[in-house]
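Protocol step 4 of 5: obtain the predicted structure for the target chain.
Materials: sequence only (see below). No template structures provided, no constraints applied. The aim of this step is simply to have a reference model before the mutagenesis design in step 5. Sequence pasted as it appears in the construct record:
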Amino acid sequence: MIGARTSAQTVRSQRKQLIAANLKLTDQEATKFWPVYDQYVSKLITINDRKFRLVQEYADDYGKLTNERSLSFVRRWLDADIPIVSKVLEGKKISNVFFNWTAALR
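Step 4 output (structure tokens):
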């Protein structure tokens, strides 16, 4: 288990480096953003549990989904992440964080 934990820590560190290299924050923004980002990462287990439940719900409802219900899933998925960083960053920088986050997962 220690190896898996070390590997996860390495991935988190590399992800943070990628985001830092591409986000271009001012000193004032960085002072506010990085503690929030670190808090976000520490809450990922809870967030991912919520997303897992959404995926299960989506799969259960798949055959009977309306467009409205499908969009509801997308909104709820995004709502799991956005409120944390929207406290300190504007929309363009939030999208930059999430696109870089997604890229780092590949």
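Step 4 remarks: The chain has one domain: 2-105. The mean pLDDT is 82.
Proceed to step 5.
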